[in-house]
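FORM 7B: Structural annotation worksheet

SECTION A. Query
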Amino acid sequence: VDDVDKISRGKDVAQSGELDIDSALEKFISDDFSGGDIVAVKKGFDASTPHQLSQSYIICHAKLRLPALCAFLASHKSEKIVVFMSTCDGVDFHRDLFLASRSIVGGKGSSLLGPTPILRMHGNVPHSERALTMSKFSSSSSCVLLATDVAARGLNLPGANWIVQYDPPSETADYIHRAGRAARAGRAGNALLFLLPSESKYLDVLKVKGLKGMGMMGLEKVLEEGAKACREVTREGLKKASGGSRNDGEAFATSIQIRLEGVIVTDDEEKKREANRVKKEARAAAEAAEKEKGDEGGGGGKGSKKAWKGAEAEAQKVLNTGLLAKGRKAYQAFIRAYSAKEKAVRHIFSSRSLHVGHIARSFALKESPKELKEASSKQMAMEDGGKKK
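SECTION B. Predicted structure
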């Protein structure tokens, strides 16, 4: 069972600045390998890493995470890529968002990457879907699999060209399990780790664990390659640029962000219309049933009030299936999971260091953190109310 998928809300929030990097790394070694040989520990990751695996990292501000991921996927659309995320909600939201988006790479197909399949894998995926996902991944010449750590161990992902750790692992030991999904059976493979600027000290942790030869992939280069692969998206961004001074990479980043935010807005408008229709139908059906039972006045008794509440609950169920609700849920899950990493690295992954407004943008959400918190609380209250009934 995937430990990250079952992160509880009650875990302590990391305290920023409690440990300096040297003492933290020393503690990391003593906690994980008490009584062992530190030299052997330092060689651990290097010894476990296939020599044909090329590893790199990218330092990316939160507000550019989503454009950078899209740029990378678009420029590697002909390859098989596994993207690791920290939560089930994050996997589900990104998959649904990408599937709802029109192609940015041209060609046939109605999703973000055109004909390239976009799959999902996590602990809550039904067994029948897991089997189909594995079959499709194995048989496809190119595809994207969004996954939690349930795919990091024990699963054979044949032909994976790239392992992208979009969210760093909850347990540092899982870094190598994730990366090891590529470069199997003697084949060459690649691994890419996304980090925020505030998380750069995590590289020192990996070095202490014995990881060597990890190169930096430039954010500007990734965006430029995405811009070349998605000329229509880039042209849209250049048109919006004032004075025409924006370069192609920046134009792509701006344009794809606006596009994905627009996908959520359009979907929300459709879901609201559907929810209003469902609400009216539920109210009408409930009031008609009351009249048949002889409830005089129809709209003013307890039965009528109950019917209205029931109609509201039905409408909320529709809204909860929308991208906006899923994005809010994924955003909240990300924040909770961020503070739940192993104790030795919590000073690096401290929620206090997050720019939550920019994190919200990385989920293509236009709402402020305060608005997101209020909306999520309302959504949870409606869901809990429905369960009690």
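SECTION C. Observations
Residues 1-43 have pLDDT under 50 and may be disordered. Strands lie at 53-59, 80-84, 118-121, 143-147, 162-165, 189-195, 215-216.

SECTION D. Sign-off
Analyst initials: ____
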